[in-house]
């Protein structure tokens, strides 16, 4: 049963885990100084941040289930990958797994989009975006293909970055760089959105 959700809850569920991840990563030295526990002293800032990410992701999923009575598919996929690769990172004490997480998530999204379009003939971007954009089926098809290639490109880029750059650079790219690239990509699609736009009822 759905419950009345506070207006701030949606953004908190969406962005809370990544903010906690960043806070722990960049504030790790202060956390260790304040709580000089053996567990903290024997781990790395990236693994500690991964634990924070996992915990807040589970909390966010629980709140979504409590208030909405269901878990949206995209956050659920993301949460499952976070738990699997975050768990491997912590259990094996190997930062490689959490660095591969964005690659896996982006690849999954690309496969879902291409599979939905070419196998099931359904542009799966449409149910997610149709409240914001009203387009023809051809417009949704084009946009689905472009989003699919965007996710594949981001997967490849993540692999290049984590394999060649420092942890600090990768964390900044993962959080800030990927957001900037997403905004740039979406704005670059406005010619397609305008070209295949369908007038709303109040425009006719």
TrEMBL record:
<keyword id="KW-0997">Cell inner membrane</keyword>
<protein>
    <recommendedName>
        <fullName>Inner membrane-spanning protein YciB</fullName>
    </recommendedName>
</protein>
<feature type="transmembrane region" description="Helical">
    <location>
        <begin position="104"/>
        <end position="120"/>
    </location>
</feature>
<feature type="transmembrane region" description="Helical">
    <location>
        <begin position="48"/>
        <end position="67"/>
    </location>
</feature>
<dbReference type="Pfam" id="PF04279">
    <property type="entry name" value="IspA"/>
</dbReference>
<dbReference type="GO" id="GO:0005886">
    <property type="term" value="C:plasma membrane"/>
</dbReference>
<comment type="function">
    <text>Plays a role in cell envelope biogenesis, maintenance of cell envelope integrity and membrane homeostasis.</text>
</comment>
<comment type="similarity">
    <text>Belongs to the YciB family.</text>
</comment>
<feature type="transmembrane region" description="Helical">
    <location>
        <begin position="140"/>
        <end position="157"/>
    </location>
</feature>
<feature type="transmembrane region" description="Helical">
    <location>
        <begin position="12"/>
        <end position="28"/>
    </location>
</feature>
<keyword id="KW-1003">Cell membrane</keyword>
<feature type="transmembrane region" description="Helical">
    <location>
        <begin position="169"/>
        <end position="187"/>
    </location>
</feature>
<keyword id="KW-0472">Membrane</keyword>
<keyword id="KW-1133">Transmembrane helix</keyword>
<feature type="transmembrane region" description="Helical">
    <location>
        <begin position="74"/>
        <end position="92"/>
    </location>
</feature>
<keyword id="KW-0812">Transmembrane</keyword>
<dbReference type="InterPro" id="IPR006008">
    <property type="entry name" value="YciB"/>
</dbReference>
